[in-house]
Amino acid sequence: MAVASTSNLSELASFRSDDAVIEMIPQFALQQPLVLHTSAKPVGPWQAGIPTKVPLWLACHLQTKRLCTVPTPAWLTVSNLSEILAFERKESSLWRDESRLPFEYYQIAQRMSLDPAAQLLIKDLLQVRMDKLRQQFQDLLKNQPVQLDEENLPPPLVVEITGMGSVEIALLQKTVQQALKDQATLRYSAMKKTATKDTAESGTPMRQAEEEPTPADRPSSQRRVALRKFR
């Protein structure tokens, strides 16, 4: 599988990853809290040379201006990534400890200056997790009956997976949405078929009754007879 790059991710996923919090070491002091925008928490104050946590986009911006340094996070070490990769290859579930593998792990790693070994581990980690998720979804859909009818109508398909990162969600979003849409279409067709059958069975007497002419539809001679009897 070709490993995805940040450019292949959805714009929304890439945008959201910019708000991931990382640690930086500023080279200047900020005496007052800085309000970035109305919906975000203020950053600062901070002192020069003292590590502080800021959004990813701000740390990258200040680093390009040479106003801070961004140390490599502890979870991006070769030893930590190797342990997580071994877990992903062995276990059927996904790694769930976000302190050692954040939700935006792939996007953050793309912004860091990593050694070749760590870069390779990140790519392998993404590939293993994607293969595992694809297999899980395939197994889940295989357990759903192909032909649905009133006697074989399973409950709605609900998917709950813990440990997915934003990169996996972005890459699998269209595939999963189409699979769930196909399942919903099959369910709707089966339910519509059942409703049509029930209506046809219960609606036969109603149609016969509707076919009988009402007094207003009867010939004039019959209407006069009925009127004389009423009087």
UniProtKB/TrEMBL annotation:
- Please give the Gene3D superfamilies that the UniProt record associates with this protein: 1.20.58.1020, 3.40.5.50
Q: Which residues form the GINS subunit domain?
A: 75-152
The record's region (Disordered) falls at: 192-231
Q: Which UniProt keywords apply?
A: DNA replication, Nucleus
Q: Name one Pfam family in it.
A: Sld5
Annotated DNA replication complex GINS protein PSF2 N-terminal domain ranges read: 14-70
Entry keyword annotation includes Nucleus: yes
Name where it's found.
Nucleus
Q: Which GO terms describe its cellular component?
A: GINS complex
Matching entries from InterPro entries are given as: GINS_A, GINS_bundle-like_dom_sf, GINS_Psf2, PSF2_N
Which GO biological process categories is it annotated with? Answer: DNA replication; double-strand break repair via break-induced replication
PANTHER family named among the record's database cross-references: DNA REPLICATION COMPLEX GINS PROTEIN PSF2
> Which family does the UniProt entry place this protein in?
Belongs to the GINS2/PSF2 family.
Provide the protein name: DNA replication complex GINS protein PSF2
This protein's species is: Amphora coffeiformis
